[in-house]
Amino acid sequence: MSALTDALVEELEQTRKFFGTTTxxxxxxxxxxxxxxxxxxxxxQIAHVGLTLDWFLAGAFGPGWNMDFEADIARAKxxxxxxxxxxxxxxxxxxxxxxISDSSDADLQAxxxxxxxxxxxPRKAIVAAIVDHCAHHRGSLAxxxxxxxxxxxxxxx
Length: 157
Description:
By secondary structure, this protein is an all-alpha fold. It is 63% helix and 0% strand.
């Protein structure tokens, strides 16, 4: 791997760790909690993060951006257990790390072919977007934890 891939993989590893630390506060009984009926459950929101990792990979390195967000929401909401949701995240991060690790610097610097999202950005830009997306949902899940009377741990410890 190059210095570029090393740095990108490290960003993904840290993001995975921070997300896991925050969501470790949830137990099996919390999986079905949602603040309102139309919102994601704890399990659904965690699953959404995992599924979105694959969305970023498909957009930058695969067939392109799937813009059928209603189907994506339904897929995430269909995952109802913490084990399944956490497996989705673990598998998604493993694929993201493998994709970045296996890419040359030239591939990572090449523009994303499907310019529907991140127009003109290099493929490597999905790592920053993944970090941002995970942080957004980590924050939402910290609020869920507080609503359940739990205190999420400091993710950076």
